[in-house]
Amino acid sequence: MQTKDKLLMRALAGETLDVPPVWMMRQAGRYLPEYKATRAQAGSFLDLCYNPELAAEVTLQPIRRYGFDAAILFADILLVPQALGADLWFVEGEGPRLSTIQSANDLARLKPVETIHETLNPVYETVRLLRASLPAETALIGFAGAPWTVATYMIAGQGTKDQGPARQLMYGDRATFDALIDRITDATAAYLIAQIDAGAEVVKLFDSWAGALPGAEFERYAIEPAKRIVAAIRAHNSDIPVIGFPRQAGEKAEVFVDATGVEACAIDTSVDAHWAARTLQPKTCVQGNLDPMLLVTGGQALVSATKATAEALGQGPHIFNLGHGITPEADPANVDVMLKALRG
């Protein structure tokens, strides 16, 4: 099967399908017992990310179990700051920790963008293994974190509730903040292009904290970096579609689509699907936006919401997905219920 004939690619090309292609954010992860076994075999989370054979294995697990229309590379958005020279480690039960960038001196200690591939080569090998192993009909998605979201972690050293440390640096030392965003933007473009060269057929840009940027700052730090990254990808390979995810941007998603020209816009659960159908679908494919909590609770509510989402977005190009990542508490059996409700 040629890439253009895969269901996901047809939706990204603007085709309206009777049954939308489906995959789930974080579909390879802690809700699956087979993932937990492979994670234990790897040793640590970072060891898993940098072991091409095991990272490919966990990427393939949900494809074997559910037959999704796309696989997404198993990696982490914070591998890019690590490749730039930031210290990165994970605290069990708490999440990632990084050395912080809070001044021009901190920024000066980062490595040049040209050196990131030394660290990230195992990720590209994972992509190559996946492209050789996936079923012919399954598309392969590469991904990266968007510059603003990655910067929030690099500045605070961890996830925060309101991205306060990043906003403080943004307003208090604009030159350092802009230079950091520029460095991450260039590194992200290079990282995604390398994934494409290794075999990724689609790439996705996750801006998990886009909604924390007000007004003009959203345009400056969510839209402009994404626009630069999309332009770099198209200059390198014009056939590769890009999915943007400006999470919690609300109606600013329309401005994001207009400015960046992404082939698909993922929407979170706060976005009304009917609004997205009226406003976004005439311009781009829409991905989303089932509430991940329904895969914890299951039942008729899951069936009804799955059908309602597919119906609301069914008159235009649509990729069925969640409004955010599936949670560790989700019941794997509920994914089967969702797929049956969607596919019949």
Descriptive key words:
single chain; 344 residues; alpha/beta; seven-stranded parallel β-sheet; two-stranded antiparallel sheet; 9 strands
Descriptive report:
By secondary structure, this protein is an alpha/beta fold. Helices cover 51% and strands 12% of the residues. The protein contains 16 helices and nine strands. The chain has helices spanning 7-12, 33-42, 45-49, 52-66, 79-83, 104-108, 116-133, 147-156, 164-172, 174-198, 215-236, 252-260, 273-279, 294-297, 299-312, 332-343; strands at residues 70-72, 88-91, 95-98, 139-145, 202-207, 242-246, 264-266, 285-290, 318-322. Strands 1-4-5-6-7-8-9 form a seven-stranded parallel β-sheet. It has a two-stranded antiparallel ribbon with strand order 2-3. Strand 6 (242-246), helix 12 and strand 7 form a beta-alpha-beta unit. The longest helix has 25 residues, at 174-198. The protein is globular and about 60 Å long. The two termini are 24 Å apart. 49% of the residues are buried.
